[in-house]
Each structure stands twice: as structure tokens, then as C-alpha cells.
Amino acid sequence: MAAPKPRKLGRKETRDLDVEIGFLEGLVARDPGYIEALQLLGDDYTRRGRVEDGLRVDQRLKGLRPGDPDVHFNLACSLALARDFEAAADALCMAIELGYRDFRWLRRDPDLASFRRHEAYQRVRLRMKSLEKLTS
Questions:
Q1: Is the pLDDT of residue 69 over 60?
Q2: Which CATH class is domain 10-65?
Q3: Domain ranges (residues) in the chain
């Protein structure tokens, strides 16, 4: 299945985003471990509708920062956009295990909209519920 269509960008916004992507790609080519540039590049790829490129960046970030819950959350978003819902559930469970606790955003993030309708989301939902009970 194809990924959902990104929001339609205007001509100027598209051009500006393409310039930024080119700049970030240059930075990352010179310094492959430049975390902040990779994070921005992954976000920009996704905004541009280049879901597979964004997913590759998020997988790369996971290798560079395996203990970062936000990296796993972003990876889950990319996996959900690529419609790999089982892997998205695994990445979200790992993000939660590593300390991700912004469950309110997880329940609203538009990148996860199609994933929340998939049965794999139930594992994540149950994990969130059990943690919320512990903290109430």
C-alpha cells in the first residue's frame, strides 16, 4: 500500500524545503554522525512526501542513538507512514520502554493516524494504559 499523501505544499514552500534538504544532505555527507542535521533532514523528507528517505534517516538515527526514546518514537512514525504497522508497534513499545511518556501526543500525532486504526496499535495502547495506572 502507498503511504498517505502529505499536505500539499505551495510552490515557495516546496522550493524552500528542497533548498533546506539539499543543504542538510550536504552537512550529513560531510559529517554522517551529525544528529541534529539528520533529525531535521528526516522531518523534511517526510514533509516533502519522501517517506522512504525519512524512514532511512530514522533507522540511521536509531543506530546512532539506540537509547533515545524520541528517536524510536520518530522511527515509529516513519514506519507507520510506510504502513509497516507491526514494526511501528515494536518501535513505539521500545520508545515507551526507554522512557517516552508523551502519551497525549502519541494519541494525536497525525503520522500515526492510520496505525491507530490497525490491530497492532492495541499492544501500544495496553502498554500506555498499564503505565498510566501506575502513575495515577
A1: yes
A2: mainly alpha
A3: 10-65, 66-136
